[in-house]
Amino acid sequence: MSAFPPWLLVLGIGFAGSTAAQETLKPAAFERSGADVFQRISGALDPESCNESAARSTWMKDYIHNPARFERQLITMLPILDHVSYQARKRGLPMEYALIPFVESRFQPKAVAKGGPTGLWQIMPETGRYYGLQIGGKKDGRFSVIQSTDAALSYLQKLQTMFDDWQTGIMAYNAGDSRLRGSLRRQGLSKADADKRLPTGLAPHTYAYVKKIRALSCFMFNPASFGVDLPNEAVFTPLETDTDPVAPIPDNGN
Questions:
Q1: Spatial separation of the C-alpha atoms in residues 219 and 251, rounded to whole Å
Q2: What's the pLDDT score for residue 11?
Q3: What is the structure's pLDDT at 150?
Q4: Where are the domains of the chain?
Q5: Is 161:182 a contact under the CB 8 Å cutoff?
Q6: Which one-letter DSSP state was computed for residue 33?
Q7: pLDDT in the model for residue 115
Q8: What is the pLDDT of residue 246?
């Protein structure tokens, strides 16, 4: 998966916008608020995801040049952010995985990067095919919010089962699980540690990937520290896929 390189090309206009509404499934018959989404996310994140280094990170501050504009962008993200976080929680996955599309594409479903990564989750063609997506043409499943999220979360579920650690899973998502498994095995490690740059020999953006997710976690825990007021009062219609009962948010001390 990509690390959102500077040469990323975006097809379409604006942020995540109304792409979710263009899916073939009809919206559900009730409304949900921004507070529902942000509370779901912050309530399920591991408090240790936001460490002192992440709290002082300049990554989110560099990205949020204009807090008011960013707040408006968050509103356009809500249906997709809701879908991704809802489905991650439904699968019992660490909520840190639901922040991956922010790093990969800024929640833009039409994002295309040089070399093959495409869509919300920046899925490579071979990975997409393995998880049942049509690749290429107008019906490329990587451009579908619903199809790509199902494929990406299926892959992340495999990684979580494989490593039982969200940080290692995220690094594997970025670098490739075969490469990361090989590096861990050769260096006698069971898990990765981005702070210590272990295993050694990975691309710098793979270690930075975890740090970006941690910075996003800090943002979700305390958006005011970044000068942002979350659009908790914003109302939107969730997708029909996101209305089934899911397990309650565990008490993680947050």
A1: 19
A2: 31
A3: 97
A4: 9-237
A5: no
A6: E
A7: 82
A8: 54
* Residue appearing with tokens 């499934």: 25
Count CB-CB contacts under 10 A for residue 75.
17
pLDDT of residue 243: 78
Q: Write out the two tokens for 48.
A: 């240790």
Q: Which of 23, 71, 96, 104 is catalytic?
A: 104
| Residue 239: strand pairing partners | 27
Which DSSP letter does residue 116 get?
S
For the stretch 189-226, what's the b/e string if a residue is b when 16 or more beta carbons lie within 10 angstroms of its beta carbon? eeebebeeebbeebeeebbbbbbbbbbbbbbbbebeee
Low-confidence ranges of the chain (pLDDT < 70): 1-29, 244-254
Amino acid making up residue 145? V
Scanning the structure block, which residue is given the tokens 């936001």?
50
Question: Rounded distance, CA 240 to CA 79, Å?
Answer: 11
Token pair recorded at residue 254? 């947050």
**Alpha-carbon distances of 38 from 42, 59, 106, 126, 189, rounded to whole Å:** 6, 20, 16, 33, 35
Token code pair at residue 105: 């594409």
Fold of the domain built from segment(s) 9-237: Lysozyme (1.10.530)
Q: What is the pLDDT of residue 215?
A: 92
Partners of residue 9 on adjacent β-strands: 112
What token pair was written down for 244?
A: 């089934």
pLDDT tens track for 50-88: 988 888 888 887 778 888 889 999 999 999 999 999 999
Tokens of residue 223, six digits: 């958006």
Q: Provide the 10 A C-beta neighbour count for residue 67.
A: 13
Say what the pTM is.
Answer: 0.84
Q: What DSSP character marks residue 235?
A: E
Q: Are strands 111-112 and 9-10 parallel, antiparallel or unpaired?
A: antiparallel
pLDDT the model gives residue 2: 43
104 is catalytic: yes
Amino acid 75: pLDDT:
94
